[in-house]
Amino acid sequence: MFSDIVSRVLTLEVLSTGVARNYNGALLVMTAEFQLPTPLVPTRESYYVRYYKQHADGTWVVVDVSLDNICPSPTPRCRRRPSGCLIQEMPNGYSKVHGLKM
C-alpha cells in the first residue's frame, strides 16, 4: 500500500535525453504533488531529479533524489528520501517491480 498518492507530476527540465531514443541514461528534473488519504493534511510538493538506467539483462532502474536540500524553495515543500524501483521483464510479457527506499 502506498502511504501517499501522486496527484500531479510535471517535468521541468530534461538534462539528458538518454541514448538510442529511449530513457536509458535520461536525467530529468521533476516536481510532484503528493496527497495523503485524508482531507486533514494538505498536499505536499517535492522537487527532485529522476535517473533511468537499463542494464544488459533488460532490467531497468529508476532513481529519484530530492533537490529540496540542494536548491531550497521559498515555498514550503516536503523533503523526500532517495527512492526508486527496479523493473524486471518477465517471460510472460509482464513486468515485475521492486520498490527501493533509502
From TrEMBL:
Record-linked SUPFAM superfamilies: Bet v1-like
Residue span(s) of domain START: 1-102
Pfam families: START (PF01852)
Name of the protein in its database record: START domain-containing protein
Organism: Salix suchowensis
